[in-house]
## 1
Amino acid sequence: MRRLTAGLAIGILSVYIVGGAWAGSLTVQWGNEPRPVSTDSGPQKKKGGPPPHAPAHGYRAKHQYRYYPCCNVYHEPARGAYFWLKGDGWAVGASLPADLMAGLGASVNLDLDTDTPYTLHAEHVQQYPKEKYHPAKGPKK
């Protein structure tokens, strides 16, 4: 068995020639002394962010609504729920009263970060005036 050794600036290359076949090893060493490999990674630093089972940063569950400005109604198709103004508060149900259903008018699609869209109703009234969304007319341009 013949051994060829070449010293390189970055390490040592050892190649063994055995019966015409190559068998070799490559060792790369930085510095003069070998350093022991530690399996202990030391104390773990707590990383910021959600736990593994939670959604990633920046993600919020969106709720998609149809808002009918003409009669102050929100509809969330995913849950099949309607929210409408009734007296001094809001009512919720799987269907609307007949008088509201007949006069819904045009709708506006809203993506909100809340499951209670009526909490933002004051903003929606300003953004989408009733006058532009009369029944069977749609939004004016």
## 2
Amino acid sequence: MTTTDTLAVGATIAGLAMAFSPILQIRRMRRTRSSNDVSLLYLGLLCVGFVVWVAYGVAIPNWVLVGTNSASLAFMAFTILVALRYRRGSSRRAAAALAAEAEAKAPKERSAEQPDAHADRTGTVRLGDAPEDRGA
């Protein structure tokens, strides 16, 4: 095996490892259920670069270059789809959380409107004027 062959095998392994690396980002997005810390512009630019490398590999008939960059393009496109899914989902979850928060506050406001047990008919509470203090 020549030095060129050894480098070709090493480059192929490195290219495939890089192609599978977005799986780590997908795993994080699934664990946190958010993609807010992911730059979609960055991922999109990487996809453009992979398309250029695939075209170059086809032009110079280098199928290793085509294969590794096609795999990278596929995984990056999948990463973008997962990120978009969690972006849409996070806005729905945020709206649901706001609605739940408003619902939780609503009963408290209603109970605050009800007169206190120690208040007279006007709603005024006087110290030492609780019903049990009046002999009621």
